[in-house]
Design a protein that fits this description.
The protein contains 26 helices and 16 strands. The chain is globular, with a radius of gyration of 24 Å. It starts with 6 loop residues before the first helix and ends with a helix. By secondary structure, it is of the alpha/beta class. Helix content is 49%, strand content 10%.
Length: 633
Amino acid sequence: MPKKREIKEYSTDPAAQQMLIRAEELGIGTAFTRADNMVACNIGGAGMCCKQCGMGPCRLTKSGDVGVCGATIDTIQARNLTRAIAAGSAAHSDHGRDMAFLLKATAMGEAQGYSIRDLAKLRMVAGYYNIKVDGRKPEEVANDLADLYISQFGQQRGEIVPAIRAPKKRQQIWREQNVWPRGVDREVVEALHRTHIGDDQDPAHILNHAIRTAISDGCGGSMIATDISDILFGTPAPILGQANLGVIKEDMVNIVVHGHEPSMSEMLVAASQDPEIIAYAKAAGANGIQLSGICCTANEILMRQGIPAAGNFLHQELAILTGAVEAMVVDVQCIMQALVGLAQNFHTAIITTSPKVKIKGATHIEFDEHHALTIAKQILRVAIDNFKNRDNNKTRIPQIKEDLIPGFSHEYINYMLGGSYRASFRPLNDAIMTGRIRGVAAIVGCNNPRSSQDYLHNVVVKELLKQDVLVVQTGCGAISSAKLGLMLGEAGLSEVGNGLREICETVGIPPVLHMGSCVDNTRILTVLTQMVEDGGLGDDIDQVPAVGLAPEWMSEKALAIAAYVVASGGYVIFGGSSPVSGMERVNDSSEVLHYLSEGWEKLYGGKLEFIPDPAEMIRKTLEHIDKKRAALG
């Protein structure tokens, strides 16, 4: 039986610690305690188990072992990793597909409550693809863009179009390596086909298709999702927000939205501001409605509407443990099935909304963009009606929250550095070239209950800031820094290196920039592309002194993101466990691990490494940044 950790080992967040003490008092399990009780399979976890057919599962434990069909450890690891990347790409890209259909419905006047909010972003994106703008209504332009984006998913031959926004040299590499995606769905399907029993058996060949599949996400589904979210809901700009469980209000109807698709959450925000709904809440005895978010939905409504974030991935159970949440409204991705059982200890209603996701025991109110505002109001009324069922004796809300400034889209950073008439990334490039900023680190990704919540994120962020490394963040990693108070202009500057501090004070930015949700990692690639185009830092992303890190990863989506960043020329470091560590564990060289680093670096200039020790993560990050600085002179 594994050793049970102490509460302080579960999370570095004091609000989370309070809720975990409360769970222990009530005898309620959480993801943290389940992680202690569930011994991870060291064979499957290392990628050495194959269950792709009925002859297995085949568990390979030592050098020279093969499966029933003769598959080697290297082939099995490459297949398992590629399948995970395909699943992650499918999840993000399905999000992009839904957004494309929403844009189409909005352009046709068929999406209740939605409108085109950012005409400048619409024109800019249309311009990338030579869609005529002059003399046309915005809805006509949006309709053409929606048709183009929808076609990227089912396209069978040719090249997906959004990838033309990568640096010219990068496009040439993708064509030379034959990894430019033909269509999003085609690459995901082929990844599954190649990894079926009896198909592709060359690890390097399998992993090269993993790259192609991941690019279909990064330059396909995810980029499409970000573009359309900006067009429909507004491109983010700095706004005041708050984060942590203290945003839940004792005298309000508390509704927590959790998941990833902004179409539903944005409409809930709109509906919650309707005077009729506010009056309904007050008639129920509350002072109003308090919306807050968990996970990437939190980031979406935080950076556009200033709606507070109740927390990141591992806060979803803890929010319910406050006893003050009337409804948790979920759509897709990162939603724990344990929520329903946990909610039965309180009065909280778990409401699923996506046609793709149902949870046994939850209330299902299916969301449809054609009747969006009506359905959003229905969901809010269910939550309001539940307010009377709250047991105040069970209510425990940690009075812990932090202010932050989210909303640093690449468009805003461009404007911020140069103003309306001289918008440019040149000042950032100059700061790097003069050494005031040593480099850039994108610290992103999930929480994992097998490590201490937020610890790896925070220790890496704080140490890199001391070394004059500018940090940009998305997803649950961004919320970890928000809870720490590092996303305010004056926050933490006493612990920031002198050069970075000078830049932050001059420009008026926090040392850590909130750039959005998981799909918004494409914003980071756009920033790097624009830095390259502005000159002085080489002619491709692989020459920029920048590193991507996912210290507490757990999701297949994280693996897909890592692969498309590698394909773009980035060095990516993952903390925690490696899904392909098998041969290292049997004291032999791992062909797959070697290929993810040296093999991919030779082809794409980027590489993926798994480094569990935070001190080593920091050392390797700085070493890489300094290496790139030296190469640039």
